[in-house]
Structure formats: C-alpha cells, structure tokens
UniProtKB/TrEMBL annotation:
InterPro entries: Auxin_biosynth/cation_transpt, FAD/NAD-bd_sf. It holds the Pfam family Pyr_redox_3. Keywords: Oxidoreductase. Gene3D superfamilies: FAD/NAD(P)-binding domain. GO terms for molecular function: flavin adenine dinucleotide binding; monooxygenase activity. This is Putative flavoprotein involved in K+ transport.
Length: 389
C-alpha cells in the first residue's frame, strides 16, 4: 500500500514554498514531455527524474494544485490521508483524516517543490503532432520537441451535462455543473430551491452543503453502488487495499476476469443525508410544463416550483467526459476516447496516458493509485524505441 511508502513527509500548508522553474528549452529535444502536472503528471515526473530523463511537465494552471483549489469550498476527499500518497512522499497529518481541497492542493505543490520537478505552469498545450518521428508540442508560447509524450490531463475535467434535459428547463432557472461551484453560499440561501441531478459522491456531498445554506434541497438519480465508510471497525479503504481489490491489474487474471477495464471509479458513501433533503431515486429525463418526468413514466411537480422559495437552481453532478482537442484525431476513437491499452497508445507507441479511470487498476485515477501506474508507464517508456535512441 502506497501510504506506507518511506520518504519525506508531505509539507503542510504553512511550509509550502513555491517551485521556481528555470525555463523551457526550445532548442533541445526532450526525452519526454508530460502534459498535465496534477497528481498523475507529478507521479510520472518522479519516475522520469529517477530514470535520469531529460523531461518537462506542462500545465495550464497558474499554480500546482489549482485543480483541487478550484473545486468547491467544503470538499473533503473520500480517501483518507494514508491512501493518498504519491511515490516517495506521503502526505502529512492524521493517516485516517479526509483532507480538504486546499490540503490536497498544497500537498501536490509541496511534492513538486520537494523533488524540484521541472514544471512549466500557465502553459497550455494547444497541439501535439507527430513529425519526422518526434512529437511537436505547440503551447500558447513555444514549440517544443520530444521523443515521448505522456498525457496526464485528468479524467474529470470536461463537464458532462445531458443536453436535452438541461435545455428543457426554463431560463429563469439557473444551472451549474458541480465543477463550477466554488462556494454553495454564492448560489443558494433559505429562499432557494436546489435540484441536484446525479447522486454519486459529488451529488451527495453537495446536497449536505446546500442543505446547510437553508435551501430546499432535492437530490435525484438512481442509487449508485456506494461502499460504506466503515466496515467491521475499519475504514473501507483498509479492506479494499488489504483484499487487493484496489490494486488488481485489469489486463491480466484475476483482474481481467472481473472485467474492470474502462469502468468507473469506486465511490464511498457520504454520511447519511439529512432528513430534510428530498431524495428521488430515479433518473429524471425531462422538465416539462413545471413537472419533472422520470424514466419510469412517473411525473411529479418540479421541486423548483414549490411554494415559499423565490428562486430555483439546478446543479448537475453528472460527471465528466474526457476530451483531447490537441491530439491527432487518429489517436482517438469516434467518441474521442484514447485508443490505448494499459496506458500505451495502440496507434503511436511513444504516446502514453495516465490517470484514466481503471486504466490499469481500480485505483488508477485516484491519488493513491496513480503512482504505481506511473512507475509502470515510465518502465515502458524506457523500453520503447523512439527516434534517436
Ligand atoms: C469532486 C472530485 C472529488 C474527488 N475526490 C477524490 C478523492 O477523495 N480521492 C481520490 O483519490 N481521488 C478523488 N478524485 C479523483 C482524482 O483524484 C482527481 O480528479 C484528481 O484531480 C485527478 O488528478 P489528475 O492528475 O489525473 O488530473 P487533474 O488533477 O485534472 O490534473 C490535470 C492537469 O492537466 C492540466 N491540463 C489539462 N489539459 C491541459 C493542456 N492542454 N495543456 C496543459 N495542461 C493541461 C490541468 O491544468 C490540470 O492541472 C476526485 C475527483 C473529483 C472531480
């Protein structure tokens, strides 16, 4: 289990020093460029550094950890500290506590600083093309050349909202995707009816937070297979790691027999919803004439129209779809999903993916799982023959 890794303890918020970066080299050919410096990119950076590679991490955000900082105030990770370790430096603090978004962000920043990883922030890749056997990476500022390319751009970045249903709400009802919520207090108060669509981890957590503003809250969506937080006196993650369920490779038995590859993440239930939150355990398909229609043909008055509230909002907790607008089209299938096997592109042998759900193991997209995948991808990189080596 990675939480037990030896190594430096993660710096806490007060001791974070910002990484100073020497700059990109547009005149040399990199061995590897990693696009994205979230947890997946940083873990790749750790192993590339150990392998003595000439590499660079690019990230569109101003600051390492911004992806977590931009998630909603009050967010707590569902995985306890001890299972959130990147290789070589576990996070500080109580092993069983659930860090908040800032603690996680600061841990990532401290990690990059501790290992002096070469990260170029505020640098968005706009195009990656294969030319004369090498990858030509165009950013908003520079053109960079690399032999190998790792995409660590995150699996939870492009919000997904079912369009037909969204368009069926009248325009007076404001709508946000969960990824746009910074603080629930900016959107709701005691005069607001909130309809949360999607009852996964985000939907459940936001229901608690919106309810705390005094708003009238309705959470809709089928019950998802959430795991209990505790089982027989132990945190559920203890059991998942102890039993090997989180770490079984998908591409070989017995993991492959379980057919995990490409499936979603495991989620852990939030504390039970307050009694005052209305819970509708079916999928909504349409808002029509003030009524919500469910896929079981049932209709009910939209909670947004219930009396006593002055405004109604919809919050979409319907997840994400990955997009790769900067990659060659032939690296993706018709849905825009990377054509890859166990993290290596099946079209370009020098293109790799990290951080996708269930890429290699059920914990591939989680903080505590991506390190092991990164180690394996970097080993593959070392074995893969490219132009000039
Ligand atoms: C609400 C929420 C709660 C979660 N809670 C947990 C949890 O409790 N425990 C857990 O283990 N996991 C959790 N996850 C899942 C996962 O750990 C996080 O989503 C995590 O941020 C994924 O890390 P990543 O490095 O793969 O991607 P990201 O954190 O998304 O990082 C990708 C980086 O790539 C950069 N990037 C993207 N495109 C470009 C480009 N073209 N050019 C340059 N840079 C680019 C972005 O700026 C970003 O910094 C949660 C996810 C969500 C959405």
């Amino acid at each position: 289990m990675s939480g037990a890794d030896a190594g430096a303890r993660g710096a806490c918020k007060s001791s974070v020093t910002r990484l100073t970066f020497a700059g990109v080299n547009t005149n040399s050919t990199y061995d590897c460029i990693v696009i994205g410096a979230g947890q997946a990119g940083l873990a790749a950076g750790y192993y590339l550094q150990q392998a003595g590679k000439h590499f660079l991490l690019l990230d569109g955000h101003e600051r390492i950890g911004d992806n977590w900082r931009q998630r909603w105030k009050g967010l707590r990770l569902f995985s306890p500290n001890q299972y959130n370790a990147l290789p070589g430096m576990p996070p500080a603090g109580d092993p069983l506590s659930l860090p908040d978004r800032r603690e996680m962000a600061d841990y990532l920043e401290a990690y990059a600083t501790h290992f002096a990883l070469p990260v170029k922030n505020a640098c968005t890749c706009v195009s990656a093309k294969k030319t004369d056997g090498l990858w030509k990476i165009e950013t908003e500022q520079d053109t960079l050349i690399t032999r190998q390319l790792i995409l660590a751009t995150g699996a939870y970045r492009t919000p997904f909202i079912p369009e037909t249903l969204a368009n069926s709400f009248p325009s007076v009802i404001r709508q946000w995707h969960s990824s746009e919520i910074q603080s629930v207090a900016d959107h709701a108060d005691a005069d607001t009816s909130v309809l949360i669509i999607g009852a996964g981890a985000s939907g459940q957590q936001l229901s608690h937070l919106f309810y705390g503003t005094g708003a009238d809250v309705t959470l809709t969506g089928p019950v998802l297979p959430n795991l209990p937080r505790n089982f027989l006196g132990k945190d559920i993650y203890w059991w998942l790691y102890k039993s090997g369920m989180m770490t079984l490779r998908n591409d070989r038995p017995p993991g492959s027999w379980m057919g995990n590859a490409g499936k979603g993440d495991l989620t852990v239930a939030e504390p039970p919803l307050p009694d005052g939150v209305r819970r509708i355990k079916t999928k909504v398909t349409l808002h029509d004439d003030g009524h919500l229609q469910f896929d079981c043909q049932k209709t009910m008055p939209a909670p947004l129209a219930w009396p006593g509230r002055k405004k109604g909002i919809v919050v979409w907790c319907t997840g994400f779809r990955n997009t790769y607008p900067f990659l060659p089209a032939d690296a993706l299938d018709e849905q825009g999903t990377p054509l890859q096997q166990s993290g290596q592109s099946t079209v370009y042998n020098d293109l790799f993916f990290l951080g996708l759900p269930n890429l290699l193991r059920p914990n591939s997209s989680l903080v505590g799982g991506v390190g092991r995948d990164a180690e394996r991808i970097v080993k593959l990189i070392l074995r893969t023959k490219t132009a000039g080596n």
